[in-house]
Amino acid sequence: MVRIKSRHLLCEINVTDRNCLLLLDDRAVLAAVKDTVLRMHGDYGAAPLCFLCVFLVKYLNAHTGIVFLRFPKNCYKLLWSALPFITSIESRGHKISCFFNCLHVGGTIRTCQKFLIRYNTQQLHRMLPKCKNEEEKQEIRQAILNCSLLRGKKEAFEEASESEEDEEE
Amino acid sequence: MWSRKVKVNSYFWCLFLSVGFSTVAVNYVFEPTTKKKQVSHHLVLRSGTAVLSRVGRSRPIRVLNRLTIVMSDSSHYRPTAAEYRRFDLLAVYPTTEKLFHAACMTYDVDIICISVTEKLPFFFKRAPVNGAIERGVAFEVSYSAAIRDATMRRYTIANAIALVDTCKGKNVIVSSAAEKRLELRGPHDAANLSLLFGLSDADAKEAVSSTCRSVVLHAERRKSAGGIIHTTKTSPEETPPTPDDRTSTANHKHPVWNKTDMIGP
Fold first, then answer.
1. Residue B257 lies inside a defined structural domain of this protein
2. Number of Cβ atoms within 10 Å of the Cβ of B254
3. CATH of the domain at B70
4. Which of A42, B58, B193, B260 gives 20 to 30 Å between its CA and that of B117?
5. Is residue B202 part of a domain?
């Protein structure tokens, strides 16, 4: 069966100031990636980005800075090589200094989702020793137990990421 | 998981953890001038300063100290200087062809840095590069200059491609000479970035993992024995251990190097 194959890149956007993450939206991230690919690889690199159905930001979590990017399969390495050169994202008038850290490359969103759940569970484990009181510890333990892949919805890791965001503050 | 390495000039440990590095080398760049001839003492990090553990790994992050000597003259590198002993890794940054040749063939260093901020002052020749590869010395390309500025990007890519053409992708390490937190990149990203430098997929992956590890081992060997250890069997009960087998040295009455031939520098 002929099918359009693509690669999904799971990236984490690292910023110095976590409050700026909330200003992000998918159009800003898309614009930043397009702009950087154009700068780095010129017209040859920017051409695959014109496939509107294949080059997309599929998921963006502003609390944790996780973003799923979808690239066409035949040129994803070229486009990926431009991602380390992103130094800032322009969103709603603010310029957010950041860098992209690619965590996982998958063929489908589901594999990326599974990886993200495992990754978030690890992050929660890492935060457990830093808790200040018993209540927070209980919250994190509950979140870790709730991490699972629910059918069709991404509730599990959104819940986990919100509690993570509480802990970070 | 790979053992990866990044060199920085400032201390942001949590960032390394989150990005995915297991070994970090903190670099001090020393440029000898007529006034400064000695490396100052208080720059070396104690190993116990940061006891951080990575999620999913049993060992804490390993921090190494590295010294880079910018050489414009052959007197700048003094192999017998005592201050070099305090650093785990030793690197040189030769600025002329003669120094590059000397560094590749004779100097007892672990890393040779390639200039990324200016046009190459000399061409790479196969002979010294192959000599360095045989000795286990690695060539380093750093990418943070490329991230900062467009002109630097061209120089970095041009110089890196010239190097990779000459050395065929062997013994290359890619590191960030990051001065700020935002100039650091994760290992997957650094490997992907090195595809732009002309490395193949496998070489790119090695450039951030196994070649770095071999450099660290080369440094340990250099510190402990002063050269390449060549072991020979003298008699059944007196067989000296190989360099990798460090645990058995404790059982011997005599130190290892009395019974082995030393091929020193």
1. no
2. 10
3. 3.20.20.140
4. A42
5. yes
Cβ pair B55:A101 closer than 8 A: no
* B103/chain A closest Cα distance in angstroms: 31
Task: Work out the minimum CA distance from B154 to partner chain A, whole angstroms.
Answer: 10
Using CA of residue B241, residue B247, residue B252, residue B253, what is the dihedral sign? Answer: positive
Number of structural domains found in chain B: 1
8 Å CB contact between A37 and A82: yes
Give the model confidence (pLDDT) of B213-238 as tens digits: 899 888 888 877 655 555 666 766 54
Q: B147–A85: do the CB atoms touch at under 8 Å?
A: yes
User: Residues 20..59 of B with a Cβ closer than 8 Å to A: which?
Assistant: 20, 55-56
pLDDT tens per residue across span B135-190? 889 999 999 888 888 889 999 999 999 999 999 988 999 988 887 878 888 888 99
Domain span holding position B67: 2-223
Structure tokens that stand for B258 in this block: 């009395």
ipTM for the predicted complex: 0.78
Q: Which residues of B218-235 are buried (b: 16+ CB within 10 A; e: fewer)?
A: bbebbeebeebbeeeeee
Structural domain includes residue B35: yes
| pTM for the predicted model, two decimal places | 0.76
Question: Does B255 reside within a domain?
Answer: no
